[in-house]
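Hello forum,

I keep getting stuck at the same step: I have a sequence, I want structure tokens, and every attempt I make locally crashes halfway through. Rather than fight my setup again tonight, could one of you with a working pipeline run this one for me? It's a single chain of 114 residues.
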Amino acid sequence: MDYDLELVAADGSVFPYRDDSSSDGYHYRISLDIDGNAAELLIQPHSLHVSLDDDGGWLQFPQTPSELFGDVAALNSEQLLECMAVAAETWDDAEYVSAEQISQLLGMMVGKES
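Reply #2:
Ran it on my machine without issues. Output:
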């Protein structure tokens, strides 16, 4: 995944990210290293989750950006960093979704579009 932007946290930590937003809404992907494993924090209005590269699953966090910031068209750097903080603070409350479950959900979504 190519990341063309950078977030800089208050402690100087740098997090590469990309903005995949479209007319359908915002969609950010922030590169993370979790215990030596590559991962991405995905931020969309109604979803805040970490995609785990090691097993293809993800962690779905209980709070969403729209709950945090309301109905906005885009997020600024401070809001993206706040999403990262929320994910860190609620890590133990996140729901694990396996790669198999994701595949099933995507299959159901594709079936509805037909």
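Residues 5-113 form one domain. If your local run keeps crashing, start a new thread with the error log.
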